[in-house]
Design goal:
This protein is α+β, with helices and mostly antiparallel strands. It contains 19 helices and 13 strands. The radius of gyration is 26 Å and the shape is globular. Bound molecules: protoporphyrin IX containing FE (HEM).
């Protein structure tokens, strides 16, 4: 419009008025364009079949730290910026709900902590967080060691057979055994056997993942749960899991009635140190349904995530033998054949950094989901109430503007080992392995200890090498990042120079404060 405006400006009065109007219109148009969020339009088929965070990363490199992703009438706001993530998770957390996530998880978690919002979330968080107190976590560390030792019998059989083993499946079972004991004192013993309850738990977990990636919520159509075989199986699995949980809740209530223990801040019973026991003993008046929702939430939240962290840590180590050797030097010196105690955590600093780095490269979950309850503003862009937002933790953790060589596995990137353990605060919301703000993971310490114990004890005892006769390890997504076809590894007993391996029983006997009911 400039030549036209210049020509008109030469005309007295009328021409100048028109030129001024045109200039104002141009200014407004530019201002509106600047406020319009970049938009990526696509066909949903373009992203189905690959893990959703991979195309989101490519789009982030093109469209930047905030953009709208639209498929037909559906659209999502994709966030890949630490300051924006902090705004959503912390500063303006009041303006957001779990949105889509609550809808997807309702069938299995109901109003448990992860999907709950508002007053219910506040009340459940107040009730559940105190159960993970210092003494509880310390006692769990012993149990992590026992479960890891227990699993070595399976690995020993694999060593003897010369076959390879799918370590993703192994870690999933180890994590299930651990979380069953930790949350409701139930021994799945899935490392050594299968039963209908274990199968039912896996059916429910897979269904939750299926629902979080399916493009259409067909299960909400009336009658579908009776007709579609997958949905019928899910209903049956839910029935088995709920009956098992109801049985455990009843047993725990009886135990609380019988026992003569005063409830206090660090309540912990030798007979049953589970979270369920804490919740029942606290006298909190809640329905059995809410208690079941809480237990299912903890089971799911604590199981797949930790298993995935262990899987991708071992996968990363497979191509970094020098890092494995550095872990072993630390573990040999700090632990030897002992199972770790909570005090050892301070000394296993390098091993911790390895896990921190694996969680950077493979965040679980790779995307956090929110829905805006009110309008919110990110610099010049307004996100209207009702918008669904994805905070791409994957993008944050691999952002070229936040990390040197972001794709490289480098446990030393977080600075000196005697510095703080990296978290969302030390990395200013550029690193969110456990989320941040008021909805931050409540099991972060528990999970880090669990991964640390399992990794340290297994690397002390075994060599793991990728089985190259199997398909290459690819990624697929559910709630966490899975492999496409397993993490198949060949396992050998490690040569321990100058030391002879102790039996599992000898290790347990040598471990201090081995006081709880769990038997290895
Ligand atoms: C929430 C990660 C282990 C219980 C979260 C969140 C993340 C996360 C990122 C935030 C989700 C969001 O903001 O939308 C992990 C990882 C784990 C792990 C990577 C393992 C390495 C555990 C364990 C437990 C647990 C062991 C329980 C024993 C929870 C609960 C929440 C949560 C209850 C919801 C908190 C709330 O909304 O108030 N976790 N988690 N997590 N996690 Fe974990």
């Amino acid at each position: 419009t400039r030549p036209l405006r210049q020509a008109l400006a030469k005309e007295p009065l009328f021409g100048r008025a028109v030129a001024r109007t045109l200039a104002e219109l141009g200014r407004r148009w530019r201002a509106d364009a600047a406020k319009r969020m970049p938009e990526a339009r696509g066909d949903i088929r373009e992203i189905v079949g690959q893990p959703v965070f991979v195309p989101l990363y490519k789009l982030f490199l093109v469209y930047g730290k905030i953009f709208r992703l639209s498929f037909g009438p559906k659209s999502f706001v994709i966030i890949s910026d630490p300051a924006y993530a902090k705004q959503i998770l912390m500063t303006n957390a009041d303006k957001y709900s779990k949105g889509l996530l609550s809808e997807i998880l309702d069938f299995v978690m109901g109003t448990g902590l992860i999907p709950a919002d508002g007053e219910i979330w506040r009340a459940r968080r107040r009730a559940v967080v105190p159960a993970l107190h210092r003494k509880y976590v310390a006692s769990m560390v012993h149990m992590f060691g026992d479960c890891t030792l227990h699993g070595t019998s399976t690995l020993d059989r694999v060593v003897a057979s010369g076959e390879s083993i799918d370590m993703e499946n192994y870690f999933s079972r180890l994590a299930l055994d651990i979380i069953g004991k930790a949350v409701f004192n139930y021994d799945f013993d899935s490392l050594t056997h299968d039963d209908p309850v274990i199968q039912a738990v896996y059916t429910v977990l897979r269904e939750a993942e299926h629902r979080s990636t399916a493009p259409l919520a067909y299960w909400n159509i009336p009658g579908v749960s009776m007709v579609v075989p997958r949905q019928r199986r899910c209903q049956e699995a839910l029935r088995i899991v709920n009956t098992t949980l109801d049985g455990l809740i009843d047993k725990c209530k009886k135990l609380v009635e019988e026992e003569d223990m005063e409830f206090g801040e660090e309540f912990l019973s030798d007979r049953d140190p589970s979270i369920l026991h804490f919740l029942v003993a606290s006298g909190d008046e809640i329905s059995s349904k809410q208690l079941r929702d809480d237990l299912m939430t903890l089971l799911i939240a604590g199981h797949e995530t930790t298993a995935a962290v262990l899987t991708w840590t071992l996968y990363s180590l497979a191509s970094h033998p020098e890092v494995t050797e550095a872990i072993r030097r630390e573990v040999d010196e700090v632990l030897g054949d002992r199972t770790p105690t909570v005090e050892d955590f301070k000394s296993l600093r390098f091993t911790t950094r390895v896990i921190n780095e694996a969680m950077r490269l493979y965040p679980q979950p790779p995307v956090l989901i929110r829905r805006a309850l009110q309008d919110d503003k990110f610099d010049q862009y307004v996100v209207p109430a009702g918008s669904d937002l994805f905070i791409s933790v994957w993008n944050l953790h691999r952002s070229p503007s936040l990390w040197d060589e972001p794709e490289r596995f480098n446990p030393e990137r977080f600075g000196p080992l005697d510095g703080p353990i990296p978290n969302e605060i030390t990395e200013n919301f550029g690193y969110l392995p456990f989320g941040g703000g008021r909805r931050k993971c409540i099991g972060d310490q528990f999970a880090l200890f669990e991964a640390l114990v399992a990794l340290a004890m297994l690397l002390r005892r075994y060599d793991f090498v990728l089985d190259t006769s199997k398909p290459p390890v690819g990624m697929t997504t559910g709630a966490t990042i899975h492999t496409t076809a397993g993490l198949h590894m060949r396992v050998k007993k490690r040569d321990l120079p100058g030391s002879h391996r102790q039996s599992a029983a000898a290790v347990v006997a040598a471990t201090p404060a081995y006081a709880f009911a769990y038997s290895p």
